[in-house]
Amino acid sequence: MPVRQRGPDVELRELDLFSRDDLPLLQAWAAARAASETHDLGDHASPYTVEELRGLTDPATKSRTPLLAVVGGHAAGAGMLALPHKDNVHVAFGVVHTDPAWRRRGVGSAVLAELERRAVAAGRTSMLLESASLTERDPAASFAVTHGYDLALTSLESELALGALTPEQATEESAYAIEVAAGDVPESWLEDHVVLLTRMSTDTPQGNLDLQEESWDVPRVRQWSHSQQDAGRGRVEAVARDRASGRLVGYTFITVPPHLGGVAIQEDTLVIREHRGHGLGVLLKRACARALADGWPQVHTIRTWNAADNAHMLAVNRALGFRQVAFEREWQKRLARPVALVT
Ligand SMILES: CC(C)(COP(=O)(O)OP(=O)(O)OC[C@H]1O[C@@H](n2cnc3c(N)ncnc32)[C@H](O)[C@@H]1OP(=O)(O)O)[C@@H](O)C(=O)NCCC(=O)NCCS
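Above: inputs. Below: predicted complex with coenzyme A.
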């Protein structure tokens, strides 16, 4: 369906995430994005700061290009194009946010058209976008569908008030040991993390997302682990070690973005397929939450996202005391390659 272009012209400015000169515009970009996220999710929004995005971005692995939408001298919207370079080089990840004061005037459409143009120019054949809403009715769905996107994955955002963490059950002698570390991933864990992070890209529900196995090695794991500190965040991780082989077979980690005011983020959680069914999910998450509470007494809430069809993970969350607070959706569109002109 054609999208009407209305209102004043939208000027799109490409920003360099790492440029000192661009910092004021980057701050305006982050503010527009945060205003949009907070409008839609209230206290359950987790907006990034510029400093965080800088710390979390290794341009050799994934480049991130922010686009600021300016209307009449105002920062009206924030877009971003993320292009993976080590794996999934057929995919582009897009971010489109319109400041709530500027919605329904064509800003989002202008940003998205430019992101798609750049993705095609970079040879990408799939574009992925995310949206989030407090209820099942997601206003961004109309925007996505209007622009030719299909729903590829629905996730649930859940939160655990640390005070509501359910008490530990007595456990029998186990074939697994749970270990915890704060800060960077310990050197002795790095090699096993190559397998764990690769499996994180294949052994978790992906819906219809056009994503392939990721390519990890020790230097990438080390960089990934340290990126949280570069982003100014605290980090704590719990792993499960198979006593028989000595290998790590599961992990979960939590980050603490200081600007979220006592909310910590539970990022990846994985038990590799061969070791599922032994209660490791609950043990890992509980151990990580305990270590978080000990090391970061200011944190009161853990926030996490899980695929809506990930029944096991959601059961683990319920057992720990998490409750669902919002929905997140991933949208996907196959991008048309430009037709080669024969002269
Ligand atoms: C979704 C979002 C980016 C739309 O931005 P926008 O600047 O308002 O979008 P546009 O004005 O270009 O809208 C284009 C068309 O999308 C559809 N659309 C956009 N928002 C809509 C809404 N809330 N309800 C119904 N249709 C909507 C309409 O067809 C609209 O055309 P119309 O206004 O002529 O009817 C904005 O609501 C937003 O920032 N949401 C939060 C972040 C997000 O969800 N991003 C997109 C993920 S897919």
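Residues 23-41 form the longest helix (19 residues).
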